[in-house]
């Protein structure tokens, strides 16, 4: 039987992986969200009356899905740093440096599995900080209504959840959680820190500077 999830909230924002016995093996980070187009189509299907259904179907056809990208900025104990993300095809690797890998790029939110990023905790001594983040790569709008949920699951089935809630208008990116060593233990801390275009150009650079990760960025596409 799957264990119940530990939900990280504002009032209880952090959890020690060590205290849960999660000290080695792989931990999978899953991002799932509601496809805007699928939600609109469902609404159209539930509309009553022929005219209402036709109107709702036309509206659903004009809804554009957003492309969310899950990523991880990593700072290592030797001072080196890198990022794992779909942009620039920086998908990483699990068996060798950087011991973090992104397995897929879900461009619409329609994949049942969402996007998954895997962290190899067998090399946790080499990590100083891992910042999980997500941003809208393409599409209009912001995170409101996407009902985005991030779940961290260990090999044993331990689950830790972070819901991306309280999104302000125009938010195009979010720092989800910060994993770092604290008093000798590996701790996951909820961030849910939102970023908007007003914070400046180059959202990865803005997030990196906000967390003093000291990364250098160049333009890229996927």
Explain the overall architecture.
It comes from Kitasatospora indigofera. This is Tellurium resistance. By secondary structure, this protein is mainly beta. The protein has one domain: sav2460 like domains (Lipoxygenase-1, Sandwich). Helices cover 14% and strands 36% of the residues. It contains 3 helices and 13 strands, in the order E-E-E-H-H-E-E-E-E-E-E-E-E-E-E-H. The protein has helices at residues 36-46, 50-62, 203-210, and strands spanning 6-7, 14-16, 26-32, 67-76, 81-84, 92-93, 100-102, 115-120, 127-138, 149-154, 159-163, 173-182, 185-195. The strands form 2 sheets. A 7-stranded mixed beta sheet has the order 1-11-10-3-8-7-6, with no helix packed on it. The protein has a 6-stranded antiparallel beta sheet with strand order 2-13-12-9-4-5. It is globular, with a radius of gyration of 18 Å. The relative contact order is 0.22. The model is unreliable at 39-44 and 106-111 (pLDDT under 50).
């Amino acid at each position: 039987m799957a264990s119940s999830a530990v939900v990280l909230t504002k009032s209880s924002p952090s959890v020690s992986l060590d205290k849960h016995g999660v000290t080695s093996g792989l931990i999978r980070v899953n991002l799932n969200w509601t496809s805007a187009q699928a939600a609109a189509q469902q609404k159209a299907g539930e509309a009553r009356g022929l005219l209402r259904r036709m109107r709702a179907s036309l509206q659903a056809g004009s809804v554009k899905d957003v492309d969310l990208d899950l990523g991880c900025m990593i700072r290592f104990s030797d001072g080196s740093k890198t990022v794992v993300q779909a942009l620039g095809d920086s998908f990483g690797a699990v068996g060798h440096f950087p011991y973090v890998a992104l397995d897929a790029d879900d461009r619409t939110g329609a994949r049942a599995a969402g996007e998954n990023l895997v962290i190899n905790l067998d090399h946790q001594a080499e990590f100083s900080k891992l910042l999980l983040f997500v941003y809208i790569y393409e599409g209009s709008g912001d995170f409101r209504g996407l009902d985005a949920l991030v779940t961290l699951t260990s090999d044993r089935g331990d689950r830790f959840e972070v819901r991306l809630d309280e999104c302000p208008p125009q938010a195009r990116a979010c720092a989800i959680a910060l994993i770092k060593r604290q008093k000798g233990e590996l701790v996951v801390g909820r961030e849910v820190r939102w970023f908007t275009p007003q914070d400046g150009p180059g959202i990865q650079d803005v997030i990196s500077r906000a967390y003093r990760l000291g990364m250098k960025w160049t333009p890229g596409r996927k």
